[in-house]
Design a protein that fits this description.
This protein is of the alpha/beta class and 332 residues long. The protein folds into 2 domains: 259 residues, 3-Layer(aba) Sandwich (Rossmann fold); 50 residues, no CATH class. 36% of the residues lie in helices and 23% in strands. It contains 11 helices and 13 strands. Strands 1, 2, 3, 4, 5, 6, 7 and 8 form an 8-stranded mixed β-sheet that branches. Strands 9, 10, 11, 12 and 13 form a 5-stranded antiparallel β-sheet that branches. β11 and β12 form a beta hairpin. The longest helix is centred in the first third of the chain and has 17 residues. The protein is globular. The chain binds S-adenosylmethionine (SAM). S-adenosylmethionine binds next to α4 and α5.
Length: 332
Amino acid sequence: MPHPLTDALGAALADADTGALRRATARLVEVYRSGAPPSTQVLADPVAAMAYAAYRMPATHAALTRALGEAGGLGALAGIRSLLDVGGGTGAALWAVAEAVPELERATVLDGSADALALGRRLAGYGPPVVAAAGWAPVELATRPTLPAADLAVVSYVLGELAEERRADIVDAVADAAGRVLVVEPGTPRGFAAVLAARDRLAAAGWHLVAPCPQPGPCPVAARSGDWCHFTARLERSALHRRLKGGALGHEDEKFSYVLASREPLPHSDARVLRHPGFRKGMVTLELCRSDGSAGPQIVTKRDREAYRRARDVDWGDAWGEPGGPDAAHPR
Ligand SMILES: C[S@@+](CC[C@H](N)C(=O)[O-])C[C@H]1O[C@@H](n2cnc3c(N)ncnc32)[C@H](O)[C@@H]1O
């Protein structure tokens, strides 16, 4: 069944000129290819905003959904009633959080692109009530802005668009405004570096890391040369996406890095699976990030029946082991 966001995109973009969208998509692919911060507003006109919504929003929505699913599995989304989507563009996080948090009552999307905000509002009109009722407002993330208070702030695929020296200010601004902060970036070395800097800043300020990290000390993955912590989210490509971008596959795998941190202690996982598990007869090899600050392989054999049964079910990005932290009651 098509996702409601796919339906909304199909409806909102039904009359758009496919040729113009295709050209705008090609321009966005070019801008995002390097991963370097763009020097000017990328979503600078209505067609660019539509191309972004058609070609990137389903992927950022999928990454957010996966990250929120991990947090939800730990019980770390309880008590969220309000959302602030900072640099929210066309509202990917709004849709994802509304799905992951049924108790969500209100949401605000802030962005520097008037065209992204206008399209996001239009798309949201096709969404469930809390999505349709969201507020949309301009923001300039050039200095440390004062942001409205919310239970959760999401900064998704935004830090990488800001000059490096601006990012800490924005992390501080969202931490001032919200009790929980979710940062998501592309699953590239650059994207991971932006997430790591946010993670370390929040941890240094006394915030608690919920996911994916099992501990707030130095990141053991960052210490490994040529490695970076990232995960993947699979999404079906819509007919619209295939029309704009071509490609034979019916799906794509969005690689992303993320961190969810909380001002108050929340449950977190004991360990995190960092790769697709390796399967051999009677044996599963898990590459783990552990709460003792180490990362490395762990072999689970059939002799440990319970662990072996669980190891055969986990995948890259899943929590592993007994959860830690207060009121932890969601073993995986
Ligand atoms: C790659 S899009 C991400 C949109 C959305 N968060 C998502 O995950 O799909 C980056 C967004 O950041 C916004 N942005 C970039 N620099 C900004 C700035 N200095 N002030 C306000 N918004 C900015 C852009 O307008 C754009 O909507």
